[in-house]
Amino acid sequence: MDSLIQQFKALPTTAISDAMDGLNNLDSAIKPLKDEYHFAGRALTVQVPVGDNSAVLKAIGEAQAGDILVVDCKGDTYRAIAGDFVVGMMQTMEIEALVVDGVIRDLAAIKDLNFPVFSKGTTVASSGKAGVGETNIPISCGGVTVYPGDLIIGDVDGVVVVPQAICEEILKKAKDKIVKDEQRAEKYAGKPDEIRKYIAMMTAKS
Ligand SMILES: O=C([O-])CC(=O)C(=O)O
């Protein structure tokens, strides 16, 4: 894992989101299958037509170790973009995580794999495999434009996308935000008088 990705992984998504004014987070309906999942990596983008996951298979074949598969399936929640077999292949090919604006199936078996999946939930129906769809193109996933190679970070609070061109700037802002949050917590924790002053300041009419 390169140093930039490692540094992003050390931060909570909330701080990264704050550094981007909350404007580049995926729809909050896209959640981790387990609370402890936390990933960071480069996006390998996938666009599929509703109900067909051929391009997901194509992406698994193209992936580099550490990639995050980010799938735009137009928010469809009827057909699964992957089950335990497809997710198992992602794990074997050293993909780091799957993020999809749709659903998966074989929930229990996927949880047993301990592979980070972030989705809108589960279904029973599988996808067709007609061979259409694209990889490595700009997509829209969960309301956010994702370009191949963008940084994508997910944890229990959600998923945030950092465009490649502003990675360094956002990393610094997110680190600064964490320091500020820590200083604020220290200033107010266990100090009712300070809290009253803070509330008065924040609610004063100008
Ligand atoms: O093959 C599929 O598309 C979905 C599936 O059932 C699996 O991955 O196990």
TrEMBL record:
GO MF terms, alphabetically ordered: 4-hydroxy-4-methyl-2-oxoglutarate aldolase activity; metal ion binding; oxaloacetate decarboxylase activity
Positions bound to substrate: G83, D84, F85, V86, R105
Cofactor: a divalent metal cation; Mg(2+)
Chemical reaction(s) catalysed: oxaloacetate + H(+) = pyruvate + CO2; 4-hydroxy-4-methyl-2-oxoglutarate = 2 pyruvate
Keyword Ribosomal protein: no
Amino acids binding Mg(2+): D106
Protein keywords: Magnesium, Metal-binding
EC number: 4.1.1.112, 4.1.3.17
Highest taxon, organism lineage: Bacteria
Top EC class for this record: lyase
CDD domains to which the protein is assigned, alphabetical: RraA_family
Functional summary from the UniProt entry: Catalyzes the aldol cleavage of 4-hydroxy-4-methyl-2-oxoglutarate (HMG) into 2 molecules of pyruvate. Also contains a secondary oxaloacetate (OAA) decarboxylase activity due to the common pyruvate enolate transition state formed following C-C bond cleavage in the retro-aldol and decarboxylation reactions.
Subunit composition and interactions: Homotrimer.
Family, per entry: Belongs to the class II aldolase/RraA-like family.
Name of the protein in question: Putative 4-hydroxy-4-methyl-2-oxoglutarate aldolase
